[in-house]
Amino acid sequence: MNPANPVIVQGDGKVLVETQHADFDRARDFLAQFAELESSPDLLHTYRIDALSLWNAASAGMSLDEIVDGLRALSKFDIPAEVLQNIQETVGRYGLVALEPHPDGPRTAISVSFATRYIQKVVLRTETGKELIQPDGKRGHKIDAGMRGMFKQRLLLEGWPVADRAGFHAGAPLSVSLRGQMKANGKTFAPRPYQVEAIDRWHMDGAPSGGHGVVVLPCGAGKTIVALEAMARCGTHTLVLCNNQSAVTQWIREILDKTTLTDKDVGEYTGQNKQIKPVTVATYQVLTWRRSRNADYEHLHLFRDHDWGLLVYDEVHLLPAPVFGATAELQGTRRLGLTATLVREDGREGDVFSLVGPKRYDLPWQFLEKRGFVAEATCYEIRVPFSRRDRATYEDADETTKFRLASENPAKVDVVRELVDRHDEDNVLIIGTYLGQLQEIADELGLPVITGKTPQKERDVLFGRFRRGDIRRLVVSKVANFAIDLPDANVAIQISGSFGSRQEEAQRLGRILRPKERDALFYTVVTADSKEQEFAVKRQLFLTEQGYRYHIRDHAAK
Amino acid sequence: MSDVSEASRDGDASDEAGARKRRRRRRRKKRSGGNGGGGEVQAAPETPSVPEGRVGNRGRRQVVEVTDTPAAVPASGRNPHRKRNSRARRAKPGSSGARRRRLEKGEVRHLSDFLDTMPDGLLANLYKGLGGQPRRVPNRDRLIQLAVRAVSQGSRLESLVRALHERERKTLAALLQCGGIAHNEEFHRTLVLAYGGHEREWQKAVRSLAERGLVVASAEQEEAYFYVIPDPLIDGLVDAMGPDMELPTFEHDDVRVIEDKPFSPPLDFSITSLATYIDQHGLRLTQRHEVHRHDKEALDAFFGQLWEPDGELFQFHLDFLMMHDLVVLRGEGLRLDRDVMEEFLQLEPEDQRDLVFRALDKRFELAEWVLWAVHGAGGGWVAERPLVAMYRHWKRGRDWEKRYRQGQVSATRSGERESYSFTPLVQSGLLQMGQWGQEKFYRLSARAQALLEPSDDDGFVQFYLTPDFKIAAPAGLAPILLFRIGEIAELKGIDRANSYLITEESIERALEAGWKRDDVLQFLRDNSVYELPENVEQTLKGWIGHRGDVEFHDLMLITVHRSQIKRLEGNKRIKPFILHRFAPGMYAVDRTHRGEIEAVLEQAGFSPAREVRQYPGTDEAVEARANLSKALVEAREAAREPTRRAGGIVDASQLHPVPGVSVRSLGAGARKNDDDGPPEVDAQEVQRIVDEALARGATLEMVYLARNGQKIECTVAPQSLAFKDATPMLVGLDLGSNDRLSYVLERIERLRIQEDG
User: Fold this and answer.
1) Does the distance separating the beta carbons of B468 and A41 come in below 8 Å?
2) What is the rounded distance in angstroms from the CA atom of residue A247 to the CA atom of residue B143?
3) Is-contact B504 B534, C-beta < 8 A?
4) What is the pLDDT of residue A519?
5) pLDDT band at A458, cuts 50/70/90?
6) pLDDT tens digits along B590-602
7) What stretch of H or E contains B619?
8) Which of A77, A388, A389 is nearest residue B496 as measured by Cβ atoms?
9) Of A317, B56, B183, B422, which is least surrounded by CB within 10 A?
10) What confidence tens digit (pLDDT) does each residue in A327-386 have?
11) Which of A319, A336, A156, A133 is nearest to A238 (CA)?
């Protein structure tokens, strides 16, 4: 036992790390290689060691001794025997079964190799082994090339993570490189060091073991640039899949702005446009669209009809099931997954591991924050009391309307006015849920407002003025949660929200995380001693779990 | 004889034991931080007589300090800080380290007294055995003097033991393990069982020892008697026997550990964690008084890191809690008795360990001593057979001692071949069992190690509190701290670091248990590794509010003149009775100890008042005080100016015109209500006036009875009549506050339309 160390390894595989410890940086960098960050409140971070995280580490070449010795050196207590045993058994399994290129070529068959005779015997006896593995010559074994994804997927479920070293086909060539200056504003551009490092680890100099896998970077860290670098390295036709129409627009804007590609090289495959060009950006929605529940997916052919050499999956943790199916058939194509978290709501992290590839790079946001790549955000909860009259109305109201009454507390207007005055040099977004309240604030303060009803043309004008600095305040409704083209600000004032929704909080906070010269501040105005304040506790938990500094201030009643 | 020897042994505290106690004291001092852990009251009210040898030591232990921090005393009123004046030795049996070679004065006198009562022949034998020549000694007194000197020189006994034949050494070792007393015939058979050979050979060996004066016999009855090692020799012999008394150890890489649970935290950690769990979840019992299956499954899953489902370790924990009433049966389930738990946690660590050993003894006789014996192997494995042999000697010795006291000399064969298994100690998580070939071995678990020799510095004195309201409390924290965390936060997981979550509900529970806002915040501030996160502090303040800012106390208070404060607080005998120090010179005491307190005060030279001041006092006193208050009111009345006295004599409504004086009538419009406000109205009038005001757009003056009972005078511009839950309401603008408010018509007591101008 060494209480002076920074780490506690729990019997259930959780790892607690003191963030104020002198060895924290070392511990964090070490743990990030084989454990997933589960929560990162200030002072104590929690990681989880599980099979996938260990296989991710093993695929990156980390050895059992490195993990165990490193943990022992950092831990306060002895490492629990069951955790050691689990690490030992799990890490050792990776790569015992491997896929290698077949002499007949990658389009027909893939060779299967086993670490030992015993492993071969055991794997051949599994259901997957019996169904998919065929004898190949006297001693060899192979699978059909089309079964490559399914084979990995099914063996993983049986506890045999497969090392895929079968290689990829080149795809149709495309000359693409990154610009030295951005097209839109002419400013100098170069990928950041961590973005280059991420792609180095993913690409592995073109080795068969590289070229597939997932890069994990926090919001605002520039995942798009990582993909552009990957396109430049591979020099091939690329299909980019992302989450929604707004993201498609942003992707295309970024590609045209930062690479040598032009309009004729980049197409959009969405509900509105069905262009297939050397670089095509599509949404998951359009690929998984079908006329009825029993009909076929009409657009999945996009994967097969073109000679793609690289598939990019944006927000890979949101990858829908049918796309997994299509991806399983395209294991001969290089794949890059991008995400801020590997945790999936549906628990299909294993499929991401098998079909897209293991995690290749992971960078905590604190690292980026320290180096100024993302803004250092501070959250404030400002509690405003009801006026006497509103308090009486609130107390008399039934439970269902109380939250609404608290959210629309008219006293919030004064607070917003004060905050806006205080930040007269900053770009401020005032975000809310209730249109009447937003309109009232906009009228009171004389600010432009954007809601779902605002025509796109008018939005573009306002966004443009905000981006240029002609206007410094913008009142926005829920559209801000999803509008990718919403310009960045450094101050957000949230006057109402659902507060239970973690996604909404993350999206709204994401608006101010891009690096700026000024501090990023996220204010939330809540009504004191009300339902809204109760809900705000959930929000507080979420944000503090993410590691944001959170302060509570009382606003005096007028 | 036996009583005297026991007392002597109790008093024989070694330097090492003393050092250990000092370390414990230091640790206790360190641990006493945290809420309610003040622990200033140290000495016991009663001071039973102790052997002479302890006087000096006792004096040192009764150091009393008076500090400003109030002592929290459990509800039972018993003083948890009571120090015992004597404590059984806690060390390996027969450990030479626990003894001194040089005898103290008292011990020499005791030895001398003992030898003085010994028959001449035995005394001469002993002296001869120690290398002396009794025939050359002129008289008995001189012989005793020389024998005492020989015994107190450890080297003489060592030489004697070194000269013994192996068989004699084995015999002596076995007899010492039996506690220095054994039935002759049965002892021979026991030796045959342990070492083989024939009874007569062992009999011969005992005789040889007797010839050297090391063994004597009790009175013989039909050839049966007890062998006895003279008590003053035992300590010296145990020292001198050294390796013969120790258990052989074994080391081999291939020893297979059986029934080992990898996480073996100190017992106080798991006991406190289980207590917290029961406090927060409760355990329902079936009609057969077994834990309800559903609760048991949940509990087993929760404590999965500590014990196997249905394991003996859990049962031991639960039995311990129930045995000491920490957990009691209430209604259909088990509930924690917080007061007793509080008292248990306030006990000295040594006292807590005594209770644990007592509980262990109930499951396995002499458990503590088995653990100490295995502990002597220094972490190595101890083979089962020698351990069983030793244990049998202990058990037999205990039986023989009992029979000796009862005068039962005749031989018996019962219990002679009884076999013993240490499985209960293994299942209780205190011993690890290993197997190598057919042989079984035992060694201490980390849990038992911590129980026998608690580490001076556990390394963890604080917990981790994070801004997301989670607390991680590493195993090794003081149990009182763990329990306190459990009082204010929900226990979420048991592991190397217990995890807790502070929630509004947990804080609510803590308040009900008597925590105050400042206590909660201060506790978190004091005991968190890092400073209290601002958002947590703010949120907790919001949850707690100002509840409990004013408290009632029920107690007996003693006060002392300010000139005597230092004298009283500095008195060691008075200090234990002080339960709480409110302010200098003002203290809470237990009213049931009033007599003792008075006696102690008198002994200390104070002159306590005979009468107790009563509040509110006797009926007469209450009446007198009431009269005084009344008189005061009257006096104030009397202080009014003479010219203004008439105003208060008669009720205005009872006034009449002076006879013969004409009275004028007033016009209706000029008539004013008694207080110049709107007139009292009934429901129908209210409805009518409001309707009229709405129709005319007039303003209303009214007196409104608010929900809190306050009568509010207000002027309202009526806007509409509305219904809420069938109750008619007036909605209007309060012209005073400019707020739009609604008024329940039934609560309008006075009302009128305000006329323009």
Assistant:
1) yes
2) 107
3) no
4) 76
5) confident
6) 888 889 999 999 9
7) helix B619-638
8) A77
9) B56
10) 777 788 899 999 887 766 677 788 888 888 888 888 877 778 778 787 788 899 999 999
11) A336
Interface residue of A14, A39, A44 to substitute, partner B, most B CBs within 10 Å: A44
Nearest Cα residue in chain B from A1: B459
Asked if A18 has any chain B CB less than 8 Å from its own CB, the reply is yes
Question: Which pLDDT band holds residue A407 (cuts at 50, 70, 90)?
Answer: very high
List CB contacts (< 8 A) between B493 and chain A: 10, 12
pLDDT, mean over chain B: 77
Which residues have C-beta within 8 Å of that of residue A53, sequence separation ≥ 6? A34, A35, A36, A359
Q: Give me the mean pLDDT over the B109-136 stretch.
A: 83
**Cβ within 8 Å, pair B535-A396:** no
Closest residue in A to B475 (Cα–Cα): A77
Q: Do B466 and A44 touch (CB under 8 A)?
A: yes
**CB-based contact, A541 to chain B, within 8 Å:** yes
Q: Do B474 and A20 touch (CB under 8 A)?
A: no
Size of interface A-B (CB pairs under 8 A): 103
Tokens of B476: 């090794």
Peptide bond preceding B80: is omega within 30 degrees of 0, i.e. cis?
no
B633 part of contact set with chain A, CB < 8 Å = no
CA distance B415 to B405: 19
How many angstroms separate the CA atoms of B185 and A531, rounded?
85
pTM of the complete model = 0.67
Helix (H, G, I), strand (E, B) or coil at A7: strand
Are domains A193-363 and A374-554 of this chain identical in fold? Answer: yes
- Hey, how many other C-beta atoms are within 10 angstroms of the C-beta on B28? 16
Question: Hey, are the CB atoms on B467 and A11 less than 8 Å from each other?
Answer: no
Domain boundaries, chain A: 7-93, 97-164, 193-363, 374-554
Local structure of B29: helix, strand or coil: helix
Question: Residues 504-543, chain B: which have Cβ within 8 Å of A?
Answer: 504, 529-530, 533-535, 538-539, 542
What number of other Cβ atoms are within 10 A of residue A86's Cβ? 16
Residue A9 to residue B737, Cβ atoms within 8 A: no
Q: How many CB atoms lie within 10 A of CB B419?
A: 6
Q: Which CATH superfamily is domain A374-554 in?
A: P-loop containing nucleotide triphosphate hydrolases (3.40.50.300)
Instruction: Enter the tokens of residue B102.
Output: 């040089």
Cα distances (Å, whole numbers) of residue B417 to B218, B389, B412, B582: 25, 11, 12, 64
Query: Is the CB of A398 inside 8 Å of chain B's CB atoms?
Result: no
pLDDT level of residue A557 (50, 70, 90 thresholds): low
Q: What is the ipTM of this complex?
A: 0.78
B235 sits in which H/E element: helix B231-241
Cα separation, A452 vs A476, in Å, equals 9
Options 3.90.1640.30, 3.90.1150.10, 1.10.1040.10, 3.40.50.300; CATH for A193-363 is: 3.40.50.300
